[in-house]
Amino acid sequence: MFLRNTLGLLVVFSISLTNAHAEPSSSPRKSTSFLVEAVQVNYLKHGKRIDASGRLANKSEQKLSFKTSGPVDSIMVEEGDRVKKGQLLAQLNQEEIDAQVAQSQSVYDEAKRNAARYQALYEKGVVPVEQLQSAETRLEVARSDLRISKFNKQHSVIVAPDDGRILKRQIEANEMISPFQTAFVMSMNKGGWVIRSNVTDKDIVRTNKGDRATIQLDAYPGQTLTGYVSEVAAAADSRSHLFEIEVTLDPTDLRLHSGFISRILIEPSQQESVALLPIEAIVEADATRAQVFVLDENHKVIQKDVDIAWLASDAVAIKPGLEEGSSVVTSGATYLHEGAMVSVYTPPQ
Fold first, then answer.
1. Does the keyword Nucleotide-binding feature in the UniProt annotation (predicted)?
2. What pLDDT is stored for residue 154 in this prediction?
3. Which residue segments constitute the domains of the chain, with CATH numbers given?
4. What CA–CA distance (Å, rounded) separates 112 from 136?
5. What does each C-alpha distance from 278 to 110, 233, 339 come to in angstroms?
6. Is the pLDDT of residue 229 over 90?
7. How many CB atoms lie within 10 A of CB 272?
8. Which end of the chain has fewer CB atoms < 10 Å from its terminal CB, N or C?
C-alpha cells in the first residue's frame, strides 16, 4: 500500500517537471509604453523680453528754484496742492533785493546824465574823445548792473509755470538758500506718465524707441497697462554703469501718482527665428545647450541636442536645428531613455 502511494507521487512529480521544462508560448510579449505629452516644433520670430523696474513719474515733472540767493520770506503752497499757471508759490526776503535794485537804478541814472553831459561838451570841443568814451563805458557798466539787479528781483519769486500739482516742497521759511537750489518739484497736468528705468549693456543694445511694453503697478495688482519706449540713453551712468530708458504709458483711466513702483516687460523689435518649448521638455542643459526627446515615426524617442537662444520664466527658446513640425516630449520627459516607446496623451479641450 505504501509502495503504491509512493509510485503515484513520483508520477505526478515527473509530470510537473515535464510541464515546467516545456517550450514557452509563441505569443509575443508586449513592451512597456510610457504615457507622455508632446508639442510640435514651430519656428517663429521672437525677441527675448526685457524685464525692468522703475518708478512712475509725470513726463513734465520739473524742479523749480530761485535764481538768486537769500532768506526765504514766505511759502504759499504745500505738497499735494494743485496750482494754476502764474500762481505765486514762494518768495525771498525783498528788502535787500529792493535795495540793490534802487542802488543800481541810482548809479545808472547818474551815469546816463554824465554821459549826456560829456557828449555835449565833446560836441563843443571842450573835452577830448577819450573822456566821452570813458563816460559811455561807465554807462554801459551801470546798465548791466541794473539789468542784473532787476533779474534777481524777478527771480526772487517762484511762480507756477503751468497748471499742475506740487509733488515735493524742499524749503522752509527763513531758510537761507543758494541759487538754483531746488525749492519745489512740480508735475504738469498735460505731461503724461512715464517710467524711468536702468538696464544693462546687454539689454540696451536690444532696446529701441517705439518698442512696445506692458506695465504692472504694485498699486493695482492684476491689472496691466501698456506703453512704449520713448527715450534710450546714449551713454551709461558713470557710477552704476547702467543705461537709462524711459517708457511712456498709453492713456488710462486709472488714478496714478508719482512714485508708484512699476514692473516693465519690453517686447524688443529685434527678433530672431526660435521655437518656444515648455521648460519640462528639457532633460539636461547647460548655459548654451540642452537635450530633449524627439518622437520618431514608430513612437520611439530619440535624444537630441539643441542650442538655447534664451530662457524665460516658463519656456525655453531654441535656435533652429530640430525639424520643423517634429514632436518634442514635454510632460514625462524626465522618465524616458533613448529608444523608449511612448504613447502621446492629448488633453481634452
1. no
2. 85
3. 34-43+273-344 (2.40.420.20), 50-60+189-267 (2.40.30.170), 92-156 (1.10.287)
4. 8
5. 87, 35, 22
6. yes
7. 15
8. C
Rounded-to-integer distance, Cα 37 and Cα 275, Å: 17
C-alpha grid cell, residue 247: 517708457
The dihedral built from the CA positions of residue 314, 317, 321 and 326, taken in this order, carries a sign that is positive
Query: What number of residues does the chain have?
Result: 349
How many CA atoms within 13 Å lie on the side-chain side of 117? 7
The gap from C-alpha 120 to its chain's centroid, in whole angstroms, comes to: 70
CA 341/CA 335 separation, integer angstroms: 12
180 DSSP 8-state letter: T
Query: What region does 89 belong to: left with phi over 0, alpha with psi -120 to 50, or beta?
Result: alpha
Name the phi and psi angles at 101, rounded to 5. -65, -45
**pTM summary value:** 0.57
